[in-house]
Design goal:
Layout (H helix, E strand, L loop, with lengths): L1 H30 L4 H34 L1
Helix pairs in contact: 1-2
Length: about 70
């Protein structure tokens, strides 16, 4: 059914969007001026953006592990 198709594609779409977001932020960071302020803020932004994708992958791994354990 359509609902089943949406359930399959939504996690993949979220994974792809979170990865693309992380890549976009890293590219943005490279465009920032070479000042100490920009470096500090840019590094924090990069860590935050890349953690979204990493946390999503980790959560998916945890769900898969729990499903196998049952």
């Amino acid at each position: 059914t359509i609902g089943e198709i949406e359930m399959v594609t939504k996690p993949e779409a979220l994974r792809d969007r979170s990865n693309q977001f992380a890549v976009s932020v890293v590219r943005f960071f490279r465009l920032l001026p070479r000042t100490e302020e920009a470096r500090v803020v840019g590094k924090q932004l990069s860590r935050s953006a890349t953690s979204v994708a990493a946390n999503y992958r980790a959560a998916g791994s945890e769900v898969a592990y729990r499903c196998k354990a049952v």
